[in-house]
């Protein structure tokens, strides 16, 4: 499933402009360019979010 920049912005709680900037920098995974349209692979984006939310291995909370 592909997501629009507006859908990604809602998911990341940011603006559409920020999503475009992150895509341009290569900071977001699963970017698909179809002509002038920019879309995102939902599964890649959700996996990336899960990795970012997970605590670092080997670190314990004290």
TrEMBL record:
GO MF annotation: an example: DNA binding
Transmembrane segments: none
UniProt feature coiled coil, ranges: none
Pfam families: HTH_17
Residue ranges annotated for the Helix-turn-helix domain, each copy included: 2-53
InterPro entries documented for this protein: DNA-bd_dom_put_sf (IPR009061), HTH_17 (IPR041657), SinI_DNA-bd (IPR010093)
SUPFAM superfamilies: Putative DNA-binding domain
Protein name stated in the entry: Helix-turn-helix domain-containing protein
